[in-house]
Amino acid sequence: MTTLVAFLVALALLIAVHEWGHYRVARACGVKVLRFSIGFGRVIWRRIGRDGTEFTLGALPLGGYVRMLDERDGAVAPQEREQAFNQRPLRQRAAIVAAGPAANWVLAILLFAVVAWLGSEVPKAVLGTPPAGSLAERAGVHAGDWVRAVSADGQQWDEIESLPDLQAAVARAQALAEPLHLSVTEGEGHGARSLRLDTERLAGRAPDARLAGEIGLVPLQEPLIQQVAPGGPGAAAGLLAGDRVLSIDGQGVPDAGFLRDAIRRSHDGEQPRPMLWQVQRAGQAVELRPVPRMVEDGGQRIARLEIGVGSLPERVFVRHGFGDGLWRGAQQSWDMAATTVQLLGRMLVGQASVKNLGGPLAIADAAGQSARAGLVPYLEFLARISLSLAVLNLLPLPMLDGGHLMYHLFEGLSGRPVSEWWQRQLQRAGALILVLMMALAFTNDIAARLTGWH
After folding, report:
1. Are 244 and 270 in contact (CB under 8 A)?
2. How confident is the model at residue 208 (pLDDT cuts 50, 70, 90)?
């Protein structure tokens, strides 16, 4: 229920803001607005505004629209002709069309700023043992390394305040096929050194659990057993939730990252390899001999005990002042928009995976998870979706605001509007492209099911 409510609230808010942008600029330009609707289908609420606009709420809250007086849609009384959309100057028509995405962009900036002003407890950017063969291991990341700043070229550095900041920087570098330089210190802030993460090698890969494992930037966590699957090999060996793993085959276990990697590698070819574990339970050392089970994971055969491991990573409270928070909101929204556009371009030419597209199920899941996590995570989710809506609507596709802006650009350059015949053909092509994009996103949603056992 939380997921459904959070998803519907997000949809209603972001659509309302988008259409409000069109409405307010249209009224400012002297255009008569006939209807402002949130949702489609049967009208479940209606009110007439002081300016004569009909405000409605539809039964299906999956979109919205602003219907303006326009001679192309029917006869217009002579005394209202000047209030028709098609009679306004080109610059005003373009401003009305652009106002919807602009409103979503402004909302994203404000929401990101509010998140910065409120502050939140987030995982500290202290890293655990990276998986064997990962980019982090090859870069020289060690357990306890604290990432203080990142850079695309090793010259200009951006400060890292938390693990989410680092993850966002990694995702951006991987999506744009760029390396990422890390400035790290030891846990106490000493021993500064620079590392190069070859994220460009993974360009075009979809953001999934396997990709995260190949990058290998995992938070530092205690080697604790959090959960044990009933009937699994971990349960058969006698492992219990709350056990702290001290050693495996005589080698000390420093953190959960080391433990996960040791489990995955505990096999000889197709045969699982028994291990000798020493765990701390109720203050006493207990020896166990777990034997993992071989499973298929992303096209690879790995060993798994079907246990959940790790502890909550160290957290820090991050908060910004008014000016700094507002600047951070603007910068964060710009960086995200630029990355999204570049990623879409790379998908278009086949240099990035189309699995990066997420659909309604992915959005609903993210809405529910962020809402359960608290107000700040949910506001940040709303900011990201609002910005995505702005960027999507600015794509030069007919049926989207970006397509109408292209019509206005053509009119401005040629001195004549796009013919009705061309508009009809472009509308059909745009509708087909949108349907294909939605089908692909929905397919990605269905395929994106991950497991958390080790």
Report:
1. no
2. low
Strands (E), 186-224: 193-197
Q: Average of pLDDT values for 304-329? A: 91
**What is the DSSP code string of 120-143?**
EEEE-SBB-PPPTTSHHHHHT--T
Closest C-alpha among 125, 128, 124 to residue 223:
128
CATH 2.30.42.10 domain extents, the chain = 123-219, 225-309
Q: Give dist(CA 180, CA 153) in Å, integer.
A: 8
Q: What is the mean pLDDT of residues 399-422?
A: 86
CA of residue 386 relative to chain centroid, distance? 11
Helix extents (H) in 68-89: none
Mean pLDDT value of segment 211-235: 90
Read off the amino acid at residue 138. Answer: R
Q: Give the E-state strand segments of 25-114 in sequence order.
A: 33-48, 54-68
19 is catalytic: yes
The C-alpha atoms of residue 334 and residue 338 are separated, in whole angstroms, by 6
- For the domain bounded by 225-309, which CATH number is listed? 2.30.42.10
Q: Is residue 19 pLDDT above 90, yes or no?
A: yes
Provide the pLDDT for residue 449. 47
Here the tokens at position 355 are: 């699995």
Amino acid (one-letter) located at 454: H
Give 243's contacts (C-beta < 8 A, 6+ positions apart). Answer: 224, 225, 279, 280, 281, 286
- Is residue 406 scored above 60 in pLDDT? yes
Tens-place pLDDT, residues 51-102: 889 999 988 777 888 999 998 888 888 888 999 998 999 999 999 999 999 9
Assign domain 123-219 one CATH number from 3.40.80.10, 2.30.42.10, 1.10.260.40, 2.10.109.10.
2.30.42.10
